[in-house]
Amino acid sequence: MTRSGGFAGLRREWSAAPPADQESQWIALIQSCPWEAATREPTPRGADRFVWRIHARCGPDEHAAELADDDVSGPWRDLVDVVRGTASRP
After folding, report:
1. What are phi and psi of 61, to 5 degrees?
2. How many CB atoms lie within 10 A of CB 62?
3. For residue 32, what pLDDT is reported?
4. Could you give the residue ranges of the DSSP H alpha helices within the chain?
5. H-helix or E-strand containing 5?
6. Is 10 exposed, middle or buried (0-12, 13-18, 19+ CB in 10 A)?
7. Model confidence pLDDT, tens digit, residues 7-61
8. What is the pTM of this model?
9. How far is Cα 28 from Cα 12, in angstroms, rounded to an integer?
10. Whose CA is closest to 81, among 31, 16, 37?
11. 3 burial class (0-12, 13-18, 19+ CB within 10 angstroms)?
């Protein structure tokens, strides 16, 4: 997951994998996101807004989305928060 934009176009990255005992919760969280409805080329609304690029893999299934910062809500926000809370940054 990356977040780019904001002041000076800064870019931050997070990568995470669920602990073995939480895999089913992460799968449910990933599946709850509206991947097909996600905007592929988001238009940030206003100066210094962030764009999120989210990539998730559940076994053989892979998902990708690009979202404007304002669109990171509901299940997207839940996924972002869990990943950021668990992640290691490269």
Report:
1. -90, 135
2. 10
3. 95
4. 23-32, 75-86
5. strand 2-5
6. exposed
7. 677 888 999 999 999 999 999 999 999 998 875 565 556 666 788 999 999 889 9
8. 0.81
9. 25
10. 16
11. buried
